[in-house]
Design brief:
GMP Synthetase, Chain A, domain 3; alpha/beta; 519 residues; binds 5'-O-[(S)-[(2-aminobenzoyl)oxy](hydroxy)phosphoryl]adenosine; 15 helices; 9-stranded mixed β-sheet; 5-stranded parallel β-sheet; Rossmann fold
């Protein structure tokens, strides 16, 4: 797709909302949520009410609106309502803890927070530390000293012209985690979503108005945002939104009941689904394609799924920075275990440490060029300079390409782990374990489970007066879960007498990964 066709004045909301109304799809079911259906007309109205309510609070263009919301119509209304007035919505991971939210609210300088009621209790204790935040809007039960979402929008006008933004104006941000330090705000522009919708959703998935999407990855992930929102809305299709995190059995039930045609999972979800033996009450006939991303899909999982359900899984790699999938398998051309080939609109290079191109089959660093890549990291020139090279982005992934042009994932070039498709920093887990009074030293690495999927494992050296055991392992896990998001908790803790180190005292993680160290 060429971005040259976009008008000089372009607001992304028009592509995903107004376009549906103008082309006679206003009565199409847009959102299926808790057994209720909202049409495109109804969604458009809720977006306009929300945009007008934001304007009434005095929100100006480019000001940030933080959204800590479960998948719901209110998420959709907040996201596109903000974009419509030229403000910047920032969807945030709902599984984080108070200190994370405090950092994100202050770093982004968000002036409005829209949050679902069950999570408000995590904001209450940090409220005094939020330097920029002026208004809190709560979705769900009423909370004193906050605005109630439904009342807040109730009397607003349902008419709202989109702000006169340009294709290259900022549109929304997504935070991305790094090995050390704090998450970085990736600034996405007005033209980024249409680029992914056209090149990947239409180009690879051939999405149409008849499709119904269901994604295990929530809307606050870049992956889920495309799957469950701007892909279906690009063509007037239906999204099935689910506020809760579902167990594998409930995922099967949901598919059986709501009949999606496109099912988006992550490898851990496919492994969980395949671990259920009795699936006699489930029916996946509606699903024409499944998609996997977030971490590499092992060939064995692909084969098992295909044998069981007769549906292909298209593994593809995407990132928060590029917004969605840029290398993907294609229907009827899957090479299981590989990430497939570059999506139209993206170029890929595999280079050595000096950015020189490598010959086929050689393992090197993956660079990507494509027009959906974020413009920069908010307020972080150093990370921006390290990550972006002219218009190319360094993905931080090691890849090789085979003689037929298929790309094969070979690991990360940093220590970051992808667990259940979600970033986990070993450094953050280590720093948390170090706060425990019995821990002297520790190191966290990834280990592969029975499905070949990476999970965090901690090697812990205790202070000399203590000994390890199952009770302490349980206690340390609870300690970590109390302090940081529970998906970051190590699945295994091994107590060791010492950690392997270099002459300069740096922990040699590769030796721990290889399992050389015995307690
Ligand atoms: C890894 C993969 C191997 C890889 C994402 C689809 O995962 C997404 O975004 P994140 O920013 O992470 C990006 C990193 O995750 N990765 C993702 N997919 C694969 N590795 N095979 C894969 N199929 O390290 C990449 O750099 O959380 C996925 C769409 C949008 C996304 N943001």
């Amino acid at each position: 797709m060429s971005l040259k066709n976009l008008p000089r004045s372009y607001n992304a909301c028009t592509t995903f909302i107004d376009e549906n109304l103008h082309s006679g799809r206003g009565e199409n079911p847009a959102i299926l949520y808790n057994e209720k259906t909202l049409t495109y007309f109804e969604v458009a109205e809720l977006i306009n009410l929300t945009g007008n309510a934001l304007l009434k609070l005095g929100v100006k263009r480019e000001q940030r609106i933080m959204c800590i919301l479960f998948d719901s119509p209110e998420f959709v209304a907040s996201f596109f309502g903000a974009i419509r007035i030229g403000a910047i919505p920032i969807p945030i991971n709902t599984w984080l803890k108070s200190p994370d939210f405090e950092y994100l609210l202050n770093d982004s300088q968000a002036v409005v927070l829209i949050i679902c009621e069950p999570l408000y209790k995590l904001i209450e204790p940090i409220r005094a530390n939020l330097k920029w935040l002026r208004h809190i809007i709560v979705v769900g039960e009423k909370v004193p000293q906050t605005l109630d979402f439904s009342e807040w929008v109730k009397d607003e006008s349902a008419e709202l012209a989109p702000a006169n933004t340009s294709p290259d104006d900022p549109c929304f941000w997504l935070y991305s985690s790094g090995t050390t330090g704090f998450p970085k705000g990736a600034v996405h522009l007005q033209h980024d979503m249409i680029y992914c919708a056209e090149n990947y959703a239409r180009g690879v998935l051939n999405i149409t108005e008849q499709d119904r999407t269901f994604s295990v990855a929530k809307l606050f992930f870049a992956y889920g945002l495309g799957n469950s929102l701007y892909f279906p809305f690009y063509v007037g299709a239906t999204t099935i939104l689910e506020p809760n995190r579902l167990e594998p059995k409930s995922i099967y039930e949901k598919i059986t009941k709501n009949k999606p045609t496109l099912f988006f999972g992550v490898p851990t979800a496919f492994a969980g689904l395949l671990a259920i033996e009795d699936t006699s009450t489930f029916n996946l006939d509606s699903v024409r394609l499944s998609v996997s991303a977030g971490e590499a899909l092992p060939k064995a999982l692909y084969d098992k799924w295909f044998a069981k359900w007769d549906v292909e899984i298209l593994d593809g790699i995407g990132s928060t920075e590029t917004l969605h999938i840029f290398i993907s398998n294609r229907p009827n051309q899957v090479r299981a275990g590989s990430s497939g080939k570059p999506v139209l609109g993206y170029e890929a290079r595999i280079v050595d440490e000096n950015d020189q191109d490598l010959a086929p089959e050689k393992v090197g660093n993956l660079l990507i060029l494509g027009d959906s890549t974020c413009a920069y990291y908010w307020n972080n020139p150093k990370k921006t300079e390290e990550t972006f090279l002219d218009n190319w982005i360094r993905t931080g992934d090691k890849y090789s390409v085979d003689e037929d042009g298929y790309f094969w994932y070979q690991g990360r070039s940093d220590d970051m782990l992808k667990v259940g498709g979600i970033w986990v920093s070993p450094v953050e887990i280590e720093a948390t374990l170090m706060l425990h009074p019995r821990v002297l030293e520790c190191a966290v690495v990834g280990f592969k489970d029975a499905d070949e999927l990476v999970k965090p494992k901690a090697f812990v050296v205790l202070k000399p007066e203590f000994t390890g055991g199952n009770d302490l392992e349980t206690e340390l896990k609870k300690f970590v879960k109390d302090k940081i998001a529970s998906f970051k908790c190590p699945r295994i803790i091994e107590f060791v007498h010492q950690l392997p180190k270099t002459a300069t005292g740096k922990v040699q993680r590769f030796r721990l990964r290889e399992g050389e160290i015995k307690s």
